[in-house]
């Protein structure tokens, strides 16, 4: 693997008296798709929030493009190009599609907002058609497109996708994973945090499996799928 774009070592984090992450090591190389897998409560979302500086780290280190960002403010993290598309989409329901997208360039790439908006509309023609529609009136699949489009407006170097297939129909899930593949083909590094194990491992180069806040297995997708005990105990495939 080439030098990591994101390098996490010994990461600990939690809420109040509860420690959720117990010493996580994880790397994402430039242009790589890495899957972070695990059941509900394994610590995936806490990991995302800690790397994105929404929850403070209690120990360990987070480096992005060679710089230590462990204690950085979340705006500084976004400014470096590490962008997070949260679980549940988190669009602004009372703003239009266009307004939601424009907010994606608030902290980064503001000068190229018009060009990036056109790029997002070319990737998601449905968003162009609905640019003046209130985001809260859109379907779940359309809101997921909007959430990803908003992330792309900030010209990410690494895009964290937190449960992007959650609540989508099988057809929309297929479309979503096709989109992730296209973004990867353009050179974008992606950390894919998912419960949809089979499709995640089809598209990712490597994967980590979390259980109770610790990495239980890591390796190439092929290696994980070839391990019978892992497939049966952790992946359900």
From TrEMBL:
Molecular functions (GO terms): ATP binding; ATP hydrolysis activity; branched-chain amino acid transmembrane transporter activity
Protein family membership: Belongs to the ABC transporter superfamily.
Residues making up the signal peptide according to the UniProt record: none
Keywords from the UniProt entry: Amino-acid transport, ATP-binding, Cell membrane, Membrane, Nucleotide-binding, Transport
PROSITE patterns from the UniProt entry: ABC_TRANSPORTER_1, ABC_TRANSPORTER_2
Domain ABC transporter residue range list: 6-237
Name used for this protein in its record: ABC transporter ATP-binding protein
Annotated source species: Ramlibacter cellulosilyticus
Gene Ontology process terms (BP): L-amino acid transport
PANTHER family noted in UniProt: HIGH-AFFINITY BRANCHED-CHAIN AMINO ACID TRANSPORT ATP-BINDING PROTEIN LIVF
């Amino acid at each position: 693997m080439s030098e990591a774009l994101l390098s996490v070592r010994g990461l600990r984090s939690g809420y109040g008296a509860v420690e959720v992450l117990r010493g996580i090591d994880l790397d994402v190389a430039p242009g790589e798709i890495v899957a972070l897998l695990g059941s509900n409560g394994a610590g995936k979302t806490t990991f995302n929030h800690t790397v994105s500086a929404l929850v403070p780290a209690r120990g360990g280190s987070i480096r992005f493009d060679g710089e230590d960002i462990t204690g950085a403010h979340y705006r500084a993290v976004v400014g470096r190009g590490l962008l997070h598309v949260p679980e549940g989409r988190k669009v602004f329901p009372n703003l239009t599609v266009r307004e939601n997208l424009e907010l994606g360039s608030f902290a980064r790439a503001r000068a190229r907002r018009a060009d990036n908006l056109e790029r997002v509309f070319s990737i998601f023609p449905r968003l162009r058609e609905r640019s003046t529609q209130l985001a809260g009136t859109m379907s779940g699949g359309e809101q997921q497109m909007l959430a990803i489009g908003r992330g792309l407006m900030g010209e990410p170097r690494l895009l964290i996708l937190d449960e992007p297939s959650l609540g989508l129909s099988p057809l929309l899930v297929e479309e979503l994973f096709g989109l992730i593949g296209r973004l990867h083909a353009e050179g974008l590094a992606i950390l894919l945090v998912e419960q949809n194990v089979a499709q995640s491992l089809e598209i990712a180069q490597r994967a980590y499996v979390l259980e109770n806040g610790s990495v239980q297995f890591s390796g190439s997708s092929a290696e994980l799928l070839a391990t019978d005990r892992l497939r049966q105990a952790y992946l359900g495939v």
